[in-house]
Prior knowledge:
This protein is mostly helical. The chain contains 18 helices and 2 strands. The model is unreliable at 5-14 (pLDDT under 50).
Amino acid sequence: xxTKSTAVKPxxxxxGLGHSMKPRQLTMMGLGSAIGAGLFLGSGAGIHAAGPxxxxxxxxxxxxxxxxxxALGEMAAANPNSGAFSVYAEKAMGKTAGSTVGWLWWLxxxxxxxxxxxxxxxxxxxxxxxxxxxxxxxxxxxxxxAINLAGVRNFGEFEFWFAILKVAAxxxxxxxxxxxxxxxxxxxxxxxxxxITGNFAPSGWAGIATxxxxxxxxxxxxxxxxxxxxxTQDPVHxxxxxxxxxxxxILVFYIGSVFVIAAVLPSDSEGLxxxxxxxxxxxxxxxxxxxxxxxxxxxLLSALNANLYGASRMVFSLSERGEAPAFLSRLRxxxxxxxxxGVSVAFGFxxxxxxxxxxxxxxxxLLNLVxxxxxxxxxxxxxxxxxxxxxxxxxxxxxxxxxxxxxFLTVFxxxxxxxxxxxxxxxxxxxxxxxxxxxxxACIAVACRIGAKVKAARSASS
Length: 462
């Protein structure tokens, strides 16, 4: 364990949001937001790009997300707020930095929401080709909008059982995969480890760099735990437990699953389009491929559910701080920001129309768009924790949850992040993605700065 608690407890923030989310729901939400399209679809794309060497990409990204989660845990326990790292960035680096990272994360999530809906629809269509992909995606968007409007208690319980199902499925997949590799399945020849030992990195470092950004997207969303902490009854206990649990489970599930897939399926296999089903079909288990595909649909919908929650709460926080239109912070019904939910889900509906107009082209474009924005959000979280922890230590402020190894581990995380950017710029495809992300950040920052000046001018003249 790398964090420790003291007896100090922060006050619950005076927001109109409810505080009825339970620790178990918070923990499973962290898993639900991370185990989605990135694992069930992105893992195949990563192996296709780098071969078994994609494991290096997962280890690098996994180490980084552990450090980010520890840093976020320290800040969320001290100041539980639905704006989370956006609020912490504002406290550490100023209003423009806070609003910029908040809007960037919101944009990232609304794109991911659309990607999850289309990904789930595409998988379901592959085993039940009755309703077209765009129509299935539309049904999913309507259903999960309704769930998010039902109140955080109902939402949290729904997400809990969704996440339980996919975690159980991944555990079953790992057991079957191990049996296949060890040759324990009757009538099925074990592929052994030939794919891994024989051609570990078919595309060299360039392939690993390309896969790294696919993997970064896979881990994106885990930081939602810090957002949801604002609606729990005991943030210190809930956040600490959620971070400890989410970190090791994600690493086991991701690294374990990807190892099995890379060992069973070569990097040019058609089975990588739906890698979990591809492995189980080779295992010769009747109906297993279809079953895991349905579980993957549930996983994607669970991630959609969690990410819609996170996006709505972030824009709600921005509105509360005067950095988004005031109507987005109005609560209705069961203390739910209905307008914030509606705005956050709107892009998903637009994406379903695009899928109708441009079949099979929308999802790949969306997945490529959001990968590098995760890096910027994580980097901002690490910088904010470094500044706020230094400030707290200087002022003698007690923190309810403290990240051990400070400042070494925080600096190490930033160095690892810098290395990822260097590797990214060495590859033409990822370099273009990074440049696009930086241009997007610059535009958001300028817009936020202009908005703040206009608001200040209006206040001065009134």
